[in-house]
Design brief:
By secondary structure, this protein is an alpha/beta fold. It folds into 2 domains: 14-42 and 286-375, Aspartate Aminotransferase, domain 1 (Alpha-Beta Complex); 47-284, Aspartate Aminotransferase, domain 2, CATH 3.40.640.10. The protein has helices at residues 35-38, 47-59, 70-83, 96-111, 128-132, 157-164, 188-200, 269-284, 287-305, 327-335, 359-375; strands at residues 14-18, 21-24, 29-32, 89-93, 115-119, 149-152, 169-175, 204-208, 232-235, 246-250, 310-314, 317-321, 339-340, 342-344, 348-351. A 7-stranded mixed β-sheet has the order 4-10-9-8-7-5-6, sandwiched between helices. A 4-stranded mixed β-sheet has the order 1-2-3-13. A hairpin with a 4-residue loop joins strand 2 (21-24) and strand 3. The longest helix has 19 residues, at 287-305. It starts with 13 loop residues before the first strand and ends with a helix. The chain binds pyridoxal-5'-phosphate. Pyridoxal-5'-phosphate binds next to helix 4.
């Protein structure tokens, strides 16, 4: 047997990693400005994180959700505290798509309706309902295509209003910052109007913070720039720093009943230990403050050094849009300069580094990027 060949691979075989660096099997050292797709929040192989997981592994790694697990309570408390959402409840699961799938179920259960509004260029995952509301027909299989959903233009409140007025909508789902769509920040006024519109019409507003959450935007959640309280927030990626865990944060008015949702692995002891360690480190090492400082420096340096290129984003979620295909620049950055970057579409470099990077790393990247741009 061999792995199902669905990923085009770079010929790099990472063997170890520390903070924002990765080493391959030839002992080449790389700078990680991609965080394995926005997953590495606190840096690779943080000793406190390793220790917490090790300690837990030596006690108990897993038991089912049929018994008390006080790590879930500790995780919920710490997440409530750092995000200022202490009155919300959390349902723990294993991935981003699963978090969105459960969020959509909750919206449908509570409203008795089933149509979902999402936005052009949205990405919400690959499970059945999550992929149906994702704006990429190539990854929607026929079996996913029966969901009742509609995509509208981002920041166009009239388009949302028109759909909601039909009376069959259970949820509007929106990314805190569109990631795969190209680092597009929704307008704060649009988010405010969206929340108002949803409340008026018995529609739940779901904020997908799977990529933009956990401090990446410079606030704990990107929607907090708009000063709104969504009905549901979904999280994953940076939550476990590589340990698979996701969560659905649910406003207090939506009450649970036994059997409404469920999972075998979600919220297991090891995953909770990893997620608690992540929150402790974000708090103790002031990583949100660092993200703000370094993110602003990064965005300003990019704007000052590359006048003809569009730079977008907040904190350490940054998109650099070129007028041409950037695959050669990215390959050269990776293989010549040993810097991992991400991509959106064919023209946008997407940066999602660990929240621990410093000005020196930014300066190295700016220098290497300008050399690669002048070469191509
Ligand atoms: C905004 C957003 N939502 C959902 C997902 C799906 O998460 P997962 O791959 O953990 O299922 C992703 C993954 O890239 C994402 O960026």
């Amino acid at each position: 047997m061999k792995p199902f060949d669905v990923y085009p691979l770079f010929n790099i075989n990472p063997q170890k990693a520390l903070n924002y660096n990765i080493w391959d099997d030839n002992n080449n050292k790389y700078i990680d400005l991609y965080g394995g797709h926005a997953v590495i929040s606190i840096g690779h192989s943080h000793p406190y994180y390793i220790n917490k997981i090790n300690e837990q592994l030596n006690k108990i790694a897993f038991y089912s959700n049929s018994v008390i697990n006080d790590l879930q309570t500790e995780l919920a408390y710490k997440l409530g505290e750092i995000s200022s959402m202490q009155d919300y409840n959390i349902f723990l699961c294993n991935s981003g798509a699963e978090a969105n799938e459960n969020a959509l179920k909750i919206a449908s259960f509570f409203t008795g309706k089933k149509k979902v509004i999402s936005f052009n260029k949205a990405f919400h995952g690959r499970t059945s309902a999550a992929v149906a509301i994702t704006d990429n027909p190539k990854i929607i299989a026929p079996i996913n295509s029966n969901h009742d959903s509609v995509k509208v233009e981002l920041n166009n409140i009239e388009a949302v209003e028109k759909e909601i007025s039909k009376g069959d909508v259970c949820a509007v789902i929106i990314e805190g910052i569109q990631g795969i769509g190209g680092i597009i920040v929704p307008d704060a006024d649009f988010l405010k109007n969206l929340k108002e519109l949803c409340t008026k019409n018995n529609v739940l507003l779901i904020l997908d913070e799977i990529q933009s959450g956990y401090g990446r935007s410079g606030k704990f959640f990107a929607f907090q720039y708009a000063d709104i309280m969504p009905d549901i927030v979904t999280v994953a990626k940076g939550m476990g720093n590589g340990f698979p865990i996701g969560g659905v944060l649910i406003a207090p008015e939506y009450k649970a009943h036994y059997g409404m949702l469920g999972t075998t692995f979600g919220g297991n002891h090891l995953a909770c230990a990893a997620a608690i360690a992540v929150l402790d480190i974000i708090k103790n090492e002031k990583l949100i403050e660092n993200t703000n400082t370094i993110g602003s420096y990064f965005i300003n340096e990019l704007k000052n050094n590359f006048k003809n290129i569009q730079v977008r984003g907040l904190g350490l979620m940054i998109g650099i849009e070129f007028e041409k295909n950037i695959s050669e620049i990215r390959r050269n950055l990776l293989f010549e300069d040993k810097i991992f970057t991400g991509v959106a579409g064919s023209n946008i470099i997407r940066l999602l580094p660990p929240l621990t990077i410093n000005k020196n790393i930014v300066d190295i990247f700016i220098n290497k990027l300008s050399k690669q741009i002048s070469k191509t």
